[in-house]
Automatic annotation (TrEMBL):
The protein's name: Molybdopterin-binding protein
Record has Metal-binding as a keyword: no
Record Pfam families: Oxidored_molyb
Keywords: Membrane, Transmembrane, Transmembrane helix
Top-level lineage group: Bacteria
All residue ranges annotated as the Oxidoreductase molybdopterin-binding domain in the record: 219-344
Matches recorded under SUPFAM superfamilies: Oxidoreductase molybdopterin-binding domain (SSF56524)
Natural source organism: Saccharothrix coeruleofusca
Transmembrane segments: 56-76, 97-116, 128-146, 167-190
């Protein structure tokens, strides 16, 4: 196999482009679900939609790592050719490669750290990850535009050599091993073979009550819904709904559980409030996710619950006692725990 084989580089690059494309598209969906622009509505069905899209996001990101390394292996001799810049097209090609490789490594490495809930940096991960994704895609588009005429003009080799086939098979095998070893947190039926999967317990807890500063909830706790208040006993006496719903985290892990509680739309009706966007506030004193906005589509869904019980037992404190929000097809960071008020906006 020749390391500068343009057809081999193009084949690996196509696979890498598919992985990057899936990762970028699902990342945009995740961002829109968490920070919806005015024109965007994230659907409530199927109930596992966010679980699926975020799982694809993480799995495609993992698959992109060996593909990126393989792609660099096929082209790295060309990266050190002289002259450094021979023409405008050559400058665009090299500049786009430099930006693309740097942005890609940033995205993949920080994404892996995030999936492991390890943040050894000072910047806030979500906006940085989102911004650099656009940089990577922009560099990729420039690179493809510059190289496409050359790929079309390159003569097709008479036949693939065994070493070339072997390299492609080895690359595919590395991708399969990487996905199988790590994807169990995102794909539940892979958990038995995902030896490196993180956060794959039955129902993990990202933020404990102690970390949130919620150490105990006294008998005086009340849920405020508009101008009306409910005690925990009053909530438990209302008609209850049970539903099997997943918690799907932006880090990629997901797990299903059976939740029992009062539909949010029923609470709004009891308080004489119309269904609309609902601000949900927590007992947590500070933190980026101490409050969330529940879109009207989710507030109207009969499976959007203010949950009081988890798998038939009273809600544990770490899972949001005395009550928490659980809505279908919604990012885990927006499933607010330790809820203290609902207010239609």
């Amino acid at each position: 196999m020749r390391r500068s084989d343009p057809h081999l580089a193009a084949r690996v690059g196509l696979w890498l482009g598919v992985a990057f494309g899936l990762c970028f598209a699902t990342g945009l969906l995740s961002h829109a679900a968490q920070h919806p622009p005015g024109w965007f509505t994230w659907p409530t069905r199927p109930v596992s939609l966010y679980r699926i899209t975020q799982g694809v996001h993480v799995v495609s990101g993992v698959a992109a790592i060996p593909l990126l390394l393989a792609k660099l292996h096929t082209v790295y001799p060309r990266l050190f050719q002289r002259p450094v810049v021979g023409s405008v097209r050559h400058a665009l090609e090299r500049g786009s490669v430099l930006v693309l490789v740097g942005a890609a490594f940033f995205e993949l490495v920080t994404g892996l750290f995030s999936a492991a809930q390890n943040y050894p940096w000072d910047f806030f991960f979500p906006p940085a990850h989102y911004a650099v994704a656009w940089v990577a895609v922009g560099a990729l588009l420039v690179h493809v535009a510059v190289k496409l005429p050359l790929w079309r003009a390159a003569p097709e080799p008479r036949r693939a050599t065994l070493s070339r086939r072997g390299f492609l098979l080895a690359t595919g095998g590395a991708v399969a091993v990487a996905v199988l070893a790590t994807a169990g947190a995102s794909v539940p039926w892979l958990r038995r073979v995902s030896v490196l999967a993180t956060r794959s317990a039955a129902l993990p807890v990202n933020r404990t009550a102690a970390a949130a500063g919620v150490r105990r909830v006294g008998d005086g706790w009340r849920l405020r819904v508009g101008a009306r208040e409910f005690s925990l006993a009053e909530l438990a006496a209302l008609p209850q709904t049970s539903a099997e719903l997943p918690i799907a985290c932006v880090e990629g892990w997901s797990a299903s559980a059976r939740w029992t509680g009062v539909p949010v739309r029923d609470l709004l009706a009891l308080a004489g409030l119309p269904v609309g966007d609902v601000r949900v506030e927590s007992l947590e004193r500070d933190g980026l996710y101490r409050a969330s906005t529940l879109p009207a589509a989710h507030a109207a869904d009969p499976l959007t619950l203010l949950a009081l019980r988890l798998d038939g037992a009273p809600l544990p404190l770490d899972h949001g006692y005395p009550c928490r929000l659980i809505a279908p097809s919604r990012p885990g960071v927006l499933q607010t725990k330790w809820v203290t008020s609902l207010e239609v906006r």
